[in-house]
Amino acid sequence: MASNQRTPEQIRADIAASRHAMTVGIEGLISEVHPIAIKNRAEEEVKKTVKDTKQMIFDTVSDVRGYFVDEGGPRWNNIGTVALIAAGVAASVGAVSGVAALVRKAGK
Fold first, then answer.
1. Residues 44, 49, 55, 57: is their CA dihedral positive or negative?
2. 20-72 pLDDT, tens digit each
3. Which residues are paired to 74 by β-bridges?
């Protein structure tokens, strides 16, 4: 027998190994495309997105709170600045509304 010839046992072992590899590959493919597996992956992605968004909101609230309150108490300079801005916006909206009413009245 030449050294490059395989025995029937070696051929059977190769066939069994190939069959096993193909079975594992097919089972893996089925588990990837199975509707339940797809649904489970989608659910996990949504849960992760919700968790990340929730954490981002908590971080933002904490940052905003830190702008107005620190370990020394309220930061009145920042609170006053925001209050003045809000009053300015309200006054501007009122003025624009009044001017618009006058223009409408003059147009009649």
1. negative
2. 888 888 888 888 888 898 899 999 999 999 999 999 999 999 999 999 998 88
3. 69
Q: Cα separation of 51 and 31, whole Å?
A: 26
Q: Which two tokens stand for residue 33?
A: 């495309």
Q: What is the spatial distance between Cα 51 and Cα 58, in angstroms, rounded to a whole number?
A: 11
Query: According to DSSP H, which parts of 1-108 are helical?
Result: 8-33, 35-68, 76-106
In terms of Cα–Cα distance, which of 89, 93, 69 is closest to 79? Answer: 69
- 75 burial (CB, 10 Å; 0-12 / 13-18 / 19+) is middle
Give the predicted TM-score (pTM) of the model: 0.49
Per-residue H/E/C for 47-63: HHHHHHHHHHHHHHHHH
